[in-house]
TrEMBL record:
<feature type="binding site">
    <location>
        <position position="254"/>
    </location>
    <ligand>
        <name>K(+)</name>
    </ligand>
</feature>
<keyword id="KW-0547">Nucleotide-binding</keyword>
<comment type="function">
    <text>Exhibits a very high intrinsic GTPase hydrolysis rate. Involved in the addition of a carboxymethylaminomethyl (cmnm) group at the wobble position (U34) of certain tRNAs, forming tRNA-cmnm(5)s(2)U34.</text>
</comment>
<feature type="binding site">
    <location>
        <position position="124"/>
    </location>
    <ligand>
        <name>(6S)-5-formyl-5,6,7,8-tetrahydrofolate</name>
    </ligand>
</feature>
<feature type="binding site">
    <location>
        <begin position="274"/>
        <end position="277"/>
    </location>
    <ligand>
        <name>GTP</name>
    </ligand>
</feature>
<dbReference type="InterPro" id="IPR031168">
    <property type="entry name" value="G_TrmE"/>
</dbReference>
<comment type="similarity">
    <text>Belongs to the TRAFAC class TrmE-Era-EngA-EngB-Septin-like GTPase superfamily. TrmE GTPase family.</text>
</comment>
<keyword id="KW-0630">Potassium</keyword>
<protein>
    <recommendedName>
        <fullName>tRNA modification GTPase MnmE</fullName>
        <ecNumber>3.6.-.-</ecNumber>
    </recommendedName>
</protein>
<keyword id="KW-0963">Cytoplasm</keyword>
<keyword id="KW-0460">Magnesium</keyword>
<comment type="subunit">
    <text>Homodimer. Heterotetramer of two MnmE and two MnmG subunits.</text>
</comment>
<feature type="binding site">
    <location>
        <position position="251"/>
    </location>
    <ligand>
        <name>K(+)</name>
    </ligand>
</feature>
<dbReference type="InterPro" id="IPR027417">
    <property type="entry name" value="P-loop_NTPase"/>
</dbReference>
<dbReference type="Pfam" id="PF10396">
    <property type="entry name" value="TrmE_N"/>
</dbReference>
<dbReference type="Pfam" id="PF01926">
    <property type="entry name" value="MMR_HSR1"/>
</dbReference>
<feature type="binding site">
    <location>
        <position position="22"/>
    </location>
    <ligand>
        <name>(6S)-5-formyl-5,6,7,8-tetrahydrofolate</name>
    </ligand>
</feature>
Length: 458
C-alpha cells in the first residue's frame, strides 16, 4: 500500500513549554531534512536519535524556530513508518509556522487519529487496542487510566484471541466429523461441542460481567446531591471537590442550577451534581431549578440525600424518601455540630445503617465515613481491581453479547441432536463477532468512524 506522508501538531494548542509536530510516512525524513539545519543530515543519522538545530525556510533561510528533532526509522516507530518528531518552543506561532513549512514539502495534514489508524493498519496494534488509546486520553481517574492502559497493551485482545483459538479448534474437530461421518465419532462430537460451548460461554460471561464496572470507571457514577434547601448540599459538593465550586450561603434557595463536577472518591470516579433544594416555591427561577433537581434525581445512578440534623423531618422530605425507594441512596445527616432534632428512627426505618452517615460539613466531620459508604456500595468492599481485564467499550459489549447468543444457539442445537454442519454455522458466527472486536474483518466505514473520535495529531 502506498501511503502519503502526514503531519500534525501532536500536543494541545495553547501556551506550553514545548510543542511537538509529528510526521509519518516515506517522505518524513526527506521533508524534515529540507527545513532542518543542524550538524548532520537527517537522512544519514541512526534511528532513534535526537538532533539539535534550527528550522529555516528552505529558500529564504529565514529562521523559524530552534528545535530538537527525533528520527525513528520504519518499522521501529509508532506507525511502523518513518517517523520524525520536531519539538518546537510552545505557544501558537512557532508550531504553526513549522507545520506550514512542512505542508509545502509534499506532506499533508493528518486527519484526527490518523497516526493511530496507521499503527492499526500496519499491524502494530489491533482495533481494541486502538480504541483503548482513545480511552487512555480521556481517562479521568487513576483506575480508568489503568484499565485503558492495560487494554492498550492488549489484555482484552489476549482474551479474545484465546477464545477464538478455542473456537477454531472446535470447528476443526467438527469439520473432521463432517468429512468422516462415522457414527460413534459423531456422538463424541456432541459432547465435545457442549463442553467447549460451556467453557466459551463462561469466559464471555466473565468479560461481560466486568462491563458495568468498566463503564462506571470510565464515565463516572452519576451522583446527585438531593435535599431540601439550606441543608448543606453545596457544602458537600465543595468538600468532595476540594474547592469552592458551588456558592454556599445561609439563604435557603441559593443554588438555582445543576452544577457538575468530576471527583474521585477512594479511586471511584463520580460525576457529582449539586442541585437546587427541592421545595414548593413561587420564585420562577427557583422553580425551574427545582424541576432540574428532579430530573437529576431521576437520571442519577447514586443519590446523596442530605438532611439537616438540627431540624425535624418535613413532609417534603418524607415524600422524597418515598420517591427514592428504588434508587441507590446514601443518607447524609448534616450539621452534627448543632443540637440534634431529626427523627433518626424514621431514617433507620427506611435505610440500612451502613447507608446513613452523620456529618458536619462545617467542621469537616464524617468525610471518611461517607467515602467508605460510597466505596462499599459499588465494590462491596473489594477495592483492589487491578488485575482484571475490563470491557468498557459499547461496541465490544455488543459484539460479546452477539457471540454469546451464537454460542448459546450452538449449545442448544448440540443438545437437541441438530446436524453438526448446522451447529458449525453458529460457532463460525461467534468466531466472527469476536474477530470484529480486535478488528479482524471489519469494514472501512467502521474503521473511519472509530478513528475520527481521536484528537488531531494522535
Ligand atoms: N514523542 C512521543 N511520545 C509518545 C508517543 C509518540 O508517538 N511520540 N506515543 C504514541 O502514541 C506513545 C508511545 N507509544 C509508542 C509505541 C511504540 C513506539 C515505537 O517506536 N516502537 C518501536 C521501537 C521500540 C524500541 O526501540 O525498542 C518498536 O516497537 O518497534 C513509539 C511510541 C506515547 N508517547
Ligand atoms: N452549623 C452547620 N452549618 C452548616 C453545615 N453545613 C453547611 N452549613 C451551613 O448551612 C448553610 C447552607 O449551606 P449550603 O451548602 O449552601 O446548603 P444547600 O443545601 O446547598 O442550600 P440550597 O442551595 O439553598 O438548597 C450555609 O450557611 C452553610 O455554611 C454544618 O455541618 N453545620
Ligand atoms: Mg446549594
Amino acid at each position: 500500500m502506498i501511503q502519503d506522508t502526514i503531519a500534525a501538531i501532536s500536543t494541545p494548542m495553547g501556551e506550553g513549554g514545548i510543542a511537538v509536530i509529528r510526521i509519518s510516512g516515506d517522505e518524513a525524513v526527506a521533508a524534515a531534512d529540507r527545513i532542518f539545519f543542524g550538524k548532520s543530515e537527517l537522512g544519514v543519522v541512526p534511528s532513534h536519535t535526537v538532533h539539535y538545530g534550527f528550522i529555516k525556510h528552505p529558500l529564504t533561510l529565514e529562521r523559524v524556530d530552534e528545535v530538537l528533532v527525533t528520527v525513528m526509522k520504519a518499522p521501529k516507530s509508532f506507525t511502523m513508518e518513518d517517523v520524525v518528531e520536531i519539538s518546537c518552543h510552545g505557544g501558537f506561532i512557532s508550531v504553526k509556522k513549522v507545520l506550514d513549512l512542512l505542508l509545502e514539502q509534499q506532506v499533508r495534514l493528518a486527519e484526527p487519529g490518523e497516526f493511530t489508524k496507521r499503527a492499526y493498519l500496519n499491524g502494530r496494534i489491533d482495533l481494541s487496542q486502538a480504541e483503548a488509546v482513545i480511552d487512555l486520553i480521556r481517562a479521568k481517574s487513576d483506575r480508568a487510566h489503568r484499565i485503558a492502559l492495560k487494554q492498550a497493551e492488549g489484555s482484552l485482545s489476549t482474551n479474545i484471541k484465546l477464545l477464538r483459538h478455542n473456537l477454531v479448534e472446535l470447528m476443526a474437530h467438527i469439520e473432521v466429523n463432517i468429512d468422516y461421518p462415522e457414527h460413534d465419532v459423531e456422538e463424541m462430537t456432541n459432547a465435545f461441542i457442549t463442553n467447549s460451548c460451556t467453557q466459551a460461554l463462561g469466559k464471555i460471561e466473565q468479560l461481560l460481567n466486568t462491563a458495568n464496572q468498566g463503564k462506571i470507571l470510565r464515565e463516572g457514577i452519576v451522583t446527585a446531591i438531593i435535599g431540601k434547601p439550606n441543608v448543606g448540599k453545596s457544602s458537600l459538593m465543595n468538600t468532595l471537590a476540594q474547592e469552592n465550586r458551588a456558592i454556599v450561603t445561609e439563604i435557603p434557595g441559593t443554588t438555582r442550577d445543576v452544577i457538575e463536577e468530576f471527583v474521585t472518591v477512594n479511586g471511584i470516579p463520580l460525576k457529582l451534581l449539586d442541585t437546587a433544594g427541592i421545595r414548593e416555591t413561587s420564585d420562577i427561577v427557583e422553580r425551574i431549578g427545582v424541576e432540574k433537581s428532579k430530573g437529576a434525581l431521576a437520571d442519577a445512578d447514586l443519590i446523596l440525600l442530605v438532611f439537616n440534623g438540627s431540624e425535624k423531618l418535613e413532609s417534603d422530605e418524607l415524600s422524597l424518601i418515598e420517591q427514592l425507594k428504588d434508587k441507590q441512596t446514601i443518607v447524609i445527616v448534616n450539621k452534627l455540630d448543632l443540637p440534634q432534632q431529626i427523627e433518626n428512627d424514621i431514617l433507620a426505618g427506611h435505610f440500612p445503617a451502613e447507608r446513613i452517615v452523620m456529618m458536619s460539613l462545617l467542621e469537616q466531620q464524617g468525610i471518611a465515613d461517607l467515602e467508605k459508604a460510597i466505596a462499599s456500595l459499588f465494590f462491596s468492599g473489594q477495592v483492589e481491581l487491578n488485575d482484571q481485564t475490563y470491557v468498557s467499550n459499547v461496541r465490544h459489549i455488543a459484539l460479546l453479547k452477539k457471540a454469546k447468543i451464537a454460542i448459546d444457539d450452538a449449545f442448544e442445537a448440540a443438545g437437541a441432536g441438530v446436524p453438526i454442519d448446522l451447529i458449525q454455522i453458529d460457532i463460525r458466527n461467534a468466531w466472527e463477532y469476536l474477530g470484529e472486536i480486535i478488528g479482524d474483518s471489519v469494514g472501512e466505514s467502521l474503521i473511519d468512524q472509530i478513528f475520527s473520535q481521536f484528537c488531531l495529531g494522535k
